[in-house]
Amino acid sequence: MDFETLVQTRKSVRGFTSEPASRAVIEEIIEVAKRAPSSMNTQPWHIHALTGEPLEEVRRRNMEEMIAGAKPKRDIISHGEYQGVHRGRQVDIAKKLFAVMGIARDDKPMRQDWVLRGFRQFDAPVSLVLTYDKILDPGAVCHFDLGALCYGIVLAAWDRGLGSVINGQGIMRSDIVRKVANIPEDEVIMTCVAMGYPDDSFPANAVRSDREANSDFVRYVGFAD
């Protein structure tokens, strides 16, 4: 699949089969993704690949804490709730997802269940936890590098038949993830990528988010035409 087609067809997957990707396939994906651009070739990233019982423990404890009303405890600073145009785009995709999943606006149990799916990483059989070296904080530049790595992982996975969703809810309790996965204290947990083979019968997997027209966010300066 050529790159343009890969980018155009890739979408977030929120329903997975139970079949995990093999370690060999994960290794292959990472081998491709690690060629992502890196500032000054610093390669500040680390990847902790979880599956099986460790992932189930993270999933269970993360969900239990959030149900109990525990506050998020992420390593990175959160922007808080979205407002304005950003909130509008968030609501738009939520409406699409709830519509195909048959979740009514006043159906609080189903809405909560959807939120909890995020905390348990959409039941994906593999989770790649992305971290960077803490010594690089404050980390705007290395955050950019991890974003490039993350998107490389997503595209390489899609090219091999694996779906994924970049999932901040999965590391909402970073302390739990760190303990279960034995992640060193000198690494900052940034996000995770839930990954697995897509369940084509899951309605939300057919949803694609809208994108703004180029004219709404692109300025051309100095071009003759």
Automatic annotation (TrEMBL):
Domain Nitroreductase: 8-197
Keyword list, A-Z: Oxidoreductase
Record-linked CDD domains: PnbA_NfnB-like (cd02136)
Pfam families on file: Nitroreductase (PF00881)
GO molecular function: oxidoreductase activity
Keyword Oxidoreductase applies: yes
PANTHER family the UniProt entry points to: NAD(P)H NITROREDUCTASE YDGI-RELATED, NADH DEHYDROGENASE_NAD(P)H NITROREDUCTASE XCC3605-RELATED
Family classification: Belongs to the nitroreductase family.
Protein name listed in UniProt: Nitroreductase
Source species of the chain: Bradyrhizobium lablabi
